[in-house]
Write a structure and sequence with these properties.
It is built from 5 helices and 5 strands, in the order βαβαβαβαβα. The radius of gyration is 16 Å and the shape is globular. It has one domain: 3-Layer(aba) Sandwich (Rossmann fold), CATH 3.40.50. The longest helix has 21 residues. Strand 1, helix 1 and strand 2 form a beta-alpha-beta unit. It has 183 residues and is α/β, with parallel strands linked by helices. A 5-stranded parallel sheet has the order 2-1-3-4-5, with helices on both faces. It binds ligand FNR.
């Protein structure tokens, strides 16, 4: 049966470059990898009051994460860190205490921005968070995509040979990383 990958995109923008990057990765992956874009745009802002009775959207998120064999975080950088929408989703799925849905699931962090530092600082912050949440995260290659000139189309096709080869290298390492943890 296919290996199930939960994709979390850290942007809610309709035309998100990071969602395009996620689709590009999907297209470069082998047939036995099944990707699911996890919905985070309807989550309430986390409150510890939820722990007594978790809201339905929050429970759905936890189930989506728990059903996955691996995680792929594709995020922009907001003000040199992780966008609030993504941090909120992570907080929601990590709770109630003792029920961290991410625990032990292998993952990777990639991202794209229009700035020349290309999400490096946001990704480093996110790696810190994931280390605490017991997500073993692929170390190399790092993927900082400087988005310009419609580099990746809406359907995930890549306009540059260099970028396609580079991303294929990431996908090959990512696939091997996820397989190492597969039961
Ligand atoms: C940005 N952007 C940005 N870019 C960057 O490289 N470093 C940063 O710290 C920030 N900070 C930031 C804050 C906020 C609030 C916004 C709205 C944007 C620009 C960002 O890279 C650009 O908007 C991307 O297009 C966002 O990714 P998506 O939505 O296209 O996936």
């Amino acid at each position: 049966s296919p290996l199930k990958i939960a994709i979390l995109v850290g942007s809610l923008r309709m035309d998100s470059f990071n969602r395009r990057l996620a689709r590009a990765v999907e297209r470069l992956a082998p047939d036995d990898f099944a990707f699911k874009h996890i919905q985070i745009n309807d989550l309430p802002l986390y409150s510890q009051d939820f722990d007594a009775a978790y809201p339905p959207a929050a429970t759905r998120l936890k189930k989506d994460i728990e059903a996955a064999d691996g995680l792929l975080f594709v995020t922009p950088e907001y003000n040199r860190s992780v966008p609030g929408v993504l941090k909120n989703a992570i907080d929601v799925a990590s709770r109630p205490w003792g029920t961290n849905s991410f625990a032990g699931k292998p993952g990777a962090v990639i991202g794209s921005s229009i700035g020349s530092t290309g999400t490096a600082l946001a990704q480093q912050h996110l790696r810190n968070i994931l280390a605490y949440l017991d997500v073993p995260t692929l170390a190399q290659p790092e993927v900082f995509i400087h988005f310009k000139d419609d580099l990746i189309a809406d359907d995930g096709s890549i306009g540059s040979d260099g970028t396609r080869k580079f991303l294929q290298g990431f996908v090959d390492n990512y696939v091997a990383w996820i397989r190492r943890f597969a039961r």
